[in-house]
Write a structure and sequence with these properties.
The structure holds 2 protein chains of 2 kinds. Chain A has 17 helices and 12 strands. By secondary structure, chain A is of the alpha/beta class. Chain A folds into 2 domains: about 180 residues, Periplasmic binding protein-like II (D-Maltodextrin-Binding Protein, domain 2, 3-Layer(aba) Sandwich), CATH 3.40.190; about 210 residues, D-Maltodextrin-Binding Protein, domain 2 (3-Layer(aba) Sandwich), CATH 3.40.190.10. In chain A, the strands form 3 sheets. In chain A, strands 1, 2, 3, 6, 9, 10, 11 and 12 form an 8-stranded mixed sheet that branches. A two-stranded antiparallel ribbon of chain A has the order 4-5. In chain A, strands 7-8 form a two-stranded antiparallel ribbon. In chain A, a hairpin with a 2-residue loop joins strand 4 and strand 5. In chain A, helix 2 runs antiparallel to helix 13 and helix 16 runs antiparallel to helix 17. By secondary structure, chain B is mainly α. Chain B has 2 domains: about 45 residues, no CATH class; about 230 residues, MetI-like fold. Chain B has 12 helices and 2 strands. A two-stranded antiparallel ribbon of chain B has the order 1-2. The chains are: A alpha/beta, B mainly alpha. Chains A and B meet through helix 1, helix 3, helix 4 and helix 16 of A and helix 1 and helix 11 of B.
């Protein structure tokens, strides 16, 4: 009898261990509050941001309890998608702009048109939250990829920081002047960061140059990949030459552009968060940061910036959409919140009513005028963008790092692969 | 006492045994077996983790046969595994033979060689990223003192995989040394004494005694290092993320990309099962070889 009791105890204990982790946390019943869960991507800055603003929301909305989490950018996307797979996805999730169609394809986001007035937002970043005419996510802050440079290093090199390069030839010459090497040719200061082997920055840098040469990654209707066009070849060759002929950088020298920009290892580049580290480590040097659209290939073309950003959407599994929408509107439509988020993330706001306040506090003020004048584009949107990006990045790596590669052939191969993806899915949007 | 089965246990002893193994078995079933069977099922579906899986039969396995990326990743993984296994074992054997002698500070040296094993791959990879930075890393700085030009360790398609192998060898050697040392200390000194009396040179002693008696240990090391190498992920993800130009992409990294970056969980499960079969076959072959060697000995 004793043995049977012992056996029963062991089995129950084991079953308890197995199933304990699986029980879903019951929603709060305290005071009949509606629980809204929110998952952000970021770091301690975003945690502090939410710690500041969410309690204020709860104070003014006592019927809603917001439970928030901040996941790091590196693994956050994976964790959010896994949480949906496990049926415990958040009501509101942060998603990077280029990922929106993929998440919609997954069935992770639900339309939110009814809650937002497009007139409140700047058109280009707002449109990026749409897919097939429906709004799925709204921008909290944008991320601007442009030509960043340090005015102090320009002066050191005898260049005028108020006159950045006006075309590609000048950009190459300026970058050469900004590059420092020792007597053995070892790099001391990268004059221009040529982005290689990065999961998305390699392609973003390339795309902005391509637009500034009059090209695009896709045809206007999105049904054909134009990654092998004449402009595409010229662009790839130009960036390859920056690395291998003008020798303005060594591949792989820049590991973290924000830290390296702050330390002066890299003094210019086409990227999106170069000044971030400077704000933390040498805030007094932020005044040296300048950002302008990427110079055009020649005087007959226009230079561009790329805009992406951090978006918030309501998940398809959300049970309390109206409550979630109230939280979402509070975060993306309150100018003070948007301004703080933009300043901390070094990106311009998409909320029109936040623009003036942001201008007063950020060095982005000048370039923001250019954006308003239409010098900004978004990367193409496609539900399988991750795959397309990987194919294009690989091709660019081959071209940049193997200087003898046949550029046209490499781009033709990549284009064929991308066209195959489009043929079995849907056309790309955007650009 | 009435014995109830071929193990010679009584009924109550057998029941008690079952009760004691039950927790482990139940945990194994729920944490290992059920997910594995579910993953096998998913490998026959199209599944993006949010929508319900859609049955595609052998579609994912057929797709694999035309997937260039998969074959590149398989080739990289095999190259990484073969070189890592062989070089690690060879270096470890040399170090173990040296450390098996009566030298000063032997404990210190043993600890030093084992240290990389203790640290996580992620932490080690971050350190190596900085050490190998082309213009600013310590490794290239030291090389430059000897007028050796700086190398693009991780940023050149031709150098990245050998560099990953070098780092893996550096980490594995400590583990292999410990195993070899244990085996070396199990060899009877009288064998060497007898060989010396017979006039055998040091090299002959090593080849005919040490090496022969270490073959089962070497096979064990090959199997273990081989299995770990075939599953290489953390170090590759952190150091190169599969680049440049897919020069270092491994099968597990490809599985990760398909599942979590491209939303092809069904296809990723199919890749995982192929890797499982490869590891299963290689392990089986190795065990068979070990068995044969054991019989020969």
């Amino acid at each position: 009898m004793k043995k049977r009791l012992l056996a029963l105890c062991i089995v129950l204990l084991t079953a308890g261990m197995v199933f304990a982790g699986g029980s879903k946390e019951s929603s709060s019943s305290e005071d009949e509050k509606t629980v809204v869960t929110l998952t952000f991507l970021g770091n301690q800055v975003q945690q502090d941001f939410l710690d500041k603003w969410i309690p204020l929301f709860e104070e003014n909305n006592p019927d809603i309890d917001v439970q928030y989490t901040v996941l790091d950018w590196g693994t956050g996307k994976t964790k959010i998608l896994s949480s949906f797979a496990g049926g415990v996805g958040s009501d509101i999730v942060m998603v990077y702009g280029a990922d929106i169609p993929q998440w919609i394809e997954y069935g992770a986001l639900s339309p939110i048109d009814e809650y937002f007035d497009p007139e409140m937002f700047i058109e280009v970043p707002f449109e990026m939250g749409k897919w097939n005419g429906k709004l799925y996510a709204v921008p909290l802050q944008s991320k601007l990829t442009g030509y960043y440079y340090r005015a102090d290093k320009y002066e050191e090199a005898g260049l005028d920081p108020d006159n950045p390069p006006s075309d590609w030839q000048q950009l190459a010459e300026y970058s050469q002047k900004l590059t420092k090497r020792d007597e053995n040719g070892n790099l001391i200061q990268s004059g221009f960061w040529v982005t290689t082997s990065h999961s998305y920055k390699t392609l973003t840098q390339y795309a902005v140059f391509l637009w500034s040469a009059g090209g695009s990654l896709f045809s206007e209707d999105g049904t054909k990949c134009t990654f092998n066009s004449r402009e595409a070849v010229t662009t790839a060759e130009y960036i390859r030459d920056l690395l291998n002929v003008y020798k303005v950088d060594d591949a792989g020298s820049i590991q973290n552009e924000s830290t390296d920009f702050a330390q002066g290892k890299m003094v210019s580049g086409v990227c999106n968060n170069a000044p971030r580290g400077m704000e933390i480590s040498n805030p007094e040097e932020v005044k040296f940061v300048r950002v302008v659209p990427v110079p055009p290939i020649d005087a007959n073309h226009t230079g561009y910036c790329e805009i992406g950003g951090d978006y918030l959407g309501i998940s398809a599994t959300c049970k309390n959409r109206d409550a979630a929408a109230r939280v979402l509107k509070y975060l993306v439509e309150t100018p003070e919140i948007v301004i703080q988020s933009c300043i901390e993330s070094f990106g311009p706001p998409a909320l029109k009513s936040a623009v003036d306040g942001f201008r007063a506090q950020s060095f982005y003020a000048d370039v923001w005028n250019d954006l308003s004048n239409g010098n900004v584009k978004v990367q193409p949107l496609h539900p399988r963008w991750g795959e397309i990006q990987a194919i294009m990045t690989k091709a660019l790596d081959v071209i940049y790092l193997e200087p003898n590669a046949d550029v046209q052939q490499v781009l033709d191969d990549a284009t064929a692969q991308v066209d195959a993806i489009i043929a079995e899915s849907v056309p790309a949007l955007g650009e | 006492m009435r014995k109830s089965n071929r193990l010679g246990l009584t009924k109550s002893e057998a029941h008690a045994g079952l009760i004691f193994v039950a927790p482990a078995v139940i945990l194994f079933i729920f944490i290992r077996l059920v997910p594995t069977i579910y993953a096998l099922f998913l490998s026959f579906t199209q599944f993006n983790m949010v929508k319900d899986p859609v049955w595609v039969g052998l579609g994912n396995y057929i797709k694999m046969t035309g997937d260039k990326e998969f074959f590149i990743s398989l080739q990289n993984t095999l190259v990484y595994t073969i070189f890592n296994v062989i070089i690690s074992a060879a270096v470890a054997l040399g170090v173990a033979v040296l450390l098996n002698r009566k030298i000063r500070f032997v404990g210190f040296f043993r600890a030093i060689y084992y240290m990389p094993q203790i640290a996580s791959w992620i932490a080690l990879s971050m350190i190596w990223t900085y050490l190998l930075n082309p213009p600013y890393g310590l490794v290239n700085y030291i090389l430059s003192l000897f007028n050796i030009s700086k190398a693009p360790w991780l940023s050149s398609p031709s150098m990245a995989l050998p560099t990953l192998i070098m780092i893996a060898v550096w980490r594995n050697v400590g583990y292999d040394v410990v195993i070899y040392l244990a085996a070396l200390q199990g060899i009877q000194p009288s064998l060497y004494e007898a060989a010396e009396i017979d006039g055998a040179s040091k090299l002959q002693q090593f080849l005919n005694i040490t090496w022969k008696l270490l073959i089962p240990t070497t096979v064990y090391i090959f199997i273990m290092t081989g299995i770990f190498s075939l599953q290489a992920f953390d170090q590759v993800f952190q150091l190169t993320a599969g680049g440049p130009a897919d020069a270092t992409i491994t099968v597990v990294l490809q599985i990760y990309r398909q599942a979590f970056q491209f939303g092809q969980m069904g296809y990723a499960c199919a890749l995982a099962f192929v890797l499982f079969v490869v590891i299963f076959i290689l392990s089986g072959m190795s065990l068979k070889i070990t068995g044969r060697l054991g019989e020969t000995e």
